[in-house]
Write a structure and sequence with these properties.
This protein has 332 residues and is α+β, with helices and mostly antiparallel strands. The chain has 3 helices and 21 strands. It is rod-shaped and about 120 Å long.
Length: 332
């Protein structure tokens, strides 16, 4: 019988040690891979809260004066002492100008000539002219309190009998004529509250309400109707023809469930909406919701959320259902 070589046993032992070492290394690598923490995203979130929501319709328009008062010359002659300017206020009974009658002016000019030709006779002529005329002229009186809309003549100008001197407007009769697109008519009703602003009064908000809707429409591609709005506050605009912007409150909810607008996502496939709720388990949960009033900053949620939940407001479309998140609550 042949004997095995003397180095066979040591080789076998070495091979067993190598196999054991490889197996141990694989097990250690697998354990390390399993112990690695899951990916986590840092996000900001805001609590769902209760707040009033208001849906507004933005319209453009102009102010219109319902009542105009025209000051007219009481006689033919020369206008004197007329100092009114556009925008000035006048009160009832105020003398705003005088008209020097043409006949009186002609008599006074003749008197001056007489004084040069025959001073003795001029004295008796002067008494006659004084009895006939009022040197101050005929007064032009404002019939009621109003605001000057347009001045039509200047002091010293010759006018005929009943020529217009100025156009006045009654500030109490000023209203807003708003252009209302046909597509938005169904949203507006008389009695709705509104606010009016104008570049002529920057920073001032005038409360108003919808008084009536016109029954006629303009023709063309962008057909519009008219909405008449009345000022309801103590402050009113006094200028007619002023450009204004109107915001009509077409819908209002005093205790709406509200989320920040950045938290809202839209599913274009089925025209639905969803948010990601930061759950107590440290994960983001995709939640389908229905919405109501919406503006640039906030959205009303009509179903799907309750007050106090945290909705994620950062991360965008990198968020996914079940993603581990580290939440920082935004300061309101």
């Amino acid at each position: 019988m042949k004997r095995a070589p003397r180095f066979a046993a040591p080789c076998a032992a070495l091979l067993m040690l190598m196999v054991a070492g490889c197996g141990k290394g694989a097990s250690s690598g697998q354990q390390t891979q399993e112990e690695q923490p899951a990916a986590m995203m840092a996000v900001t979130a805001a609590p769902v809260r209760i707040a009033p929501m208001r849906q507004e319709l933005r319209l453009l328009g102009t102010t219109v004066a319902l009542r105009h008062i025209t000051l007219r010359a009481p006689a033919a002659g020369r206008v004197i002492d007329f100092k009114l300017q556009n925008g000035d206020r006048v009160s009832a009974g105020q003398v705003v100008a005088r008209v020097l009658n043409r006949e009186v002016e002609a008599a006074e000019q003749g008197l001056e000539v007489a004084r040069q030709i025959d001073p003795a006779e001029a004295a008796s002529m002067a008494q006659s002219v004084a009895r006939y005329s009022n040197n101050a002229g005929i007064a032009v009186v404002a019939p009621e309190g109003a605001v000057v809309s347009q001045r039509m003549v200047s002091s010293g100008q010759m006018v005929n009998d009943l020529d217009p001197l100025a156009d006045l407007i009654d500030p109490r009769s000023i209203y807003v004529d708003a252009a209302l697109p046909v597509d938005d008519i169904s949203m507006v009703r008389p009695g709705m509250s509104a606010t009016v602003t104008s570049p002529l009064d920057p920073g001032v908000v005038f409360p108003a309400r919808v008084a009536a809707l016109a029954p006629n429409f303009t023709q063309g591609a962008a057909a519009t109707s008219s909405a008449r709005l009345e000022f309801i506050g103590p402050r009113k605009m006094n200028q007619a023809g002023a450009p204004v912007e109107i915001r009509v409150a077409v819908r209002s909810v005093p205790d709406a469930i509200v989320i920040p607008a950045p938290a809202l996502f839209q599913n274009a496939a089925n025209d639905s909406f969803y948010v990601f709720v930061a759950g107590p388990d440290g994960k983001a949960h995709r939640t389908t919701i229905t919405i109501g009033i919406r503006n640039l900053k906030e959205v009303q949620v009509t179903s799907g959320l309750r007050p106090g939940q945290l909705v994620i407001t950062s991360g965008g479309y990198a968020l996914s259902d079940g993603l581990a998140v580290k939440v920082a609550v935004a300061q309101s």
